[in-house]
Amino acid sequence: MTAQEKLAEERDGQKNARIERILLAAFSLFSHNGFDAIAMTDIAKEAEIGVASLYRYFETKDEIAIRTAMWAWESQKKLIMPILNDTGYYTKNGIEELEEIFDLFCKLFQNEPDFFRYIYFFDAYIVCQKIDSERLIPYQEVIQSVQTVIGNAIHKGIVDGSISKKYKDNEKQLYFSLMHTLFSVSQKLSLTGKMLKMDETNDGVQQLKLLGQILLGGIK
Prior knowledge:
- With 220 residues, this protein is mainly alpha-helical.
- 77% of the residues lie in helices and 0% in strands.
């Protein structure tokens, strides 16, 4: 490697580190305050860079919102996929694979509640800003990679009989029904937490585990 190539590599490393810092700052601000209250100047301050530098990487708030959402999903995938690969996950039947996924989902809620808050605020922002679906294709592709893992477990379960064969022609609808239910409850719990006195005795993780058992029991 030439000296010029080493310098270029070093600059790329610095650029990537700066982008990572920007995305982390945006994620933290948006997940705690929503999108409307946060300006590009706030993100620059949180990331400890100049506003002009921020605009060199992200031209608009929409752009940084979408990129941060992709980063958030990718970060969770990096945590989850190694666990699945190390637990004998792929030797289990379909319903057992789903059970393990649901368990990881509960752990994700327990350890990363800001993820669910961010996605809630992001979805609302996208709808309010009327952002075209074409701009969301890269984001959709990240989510679809997660959908594939869960969809494979559903298909496997129908084939091996651990999931009722009545869902044979509705695998995709079953996926959305299961995940939208879990995700919506997780977002509700992450947003409101202990807002009311009646919530003080409620354990969010236990609620999700119970919900998972109900959902799994219903599709066996």
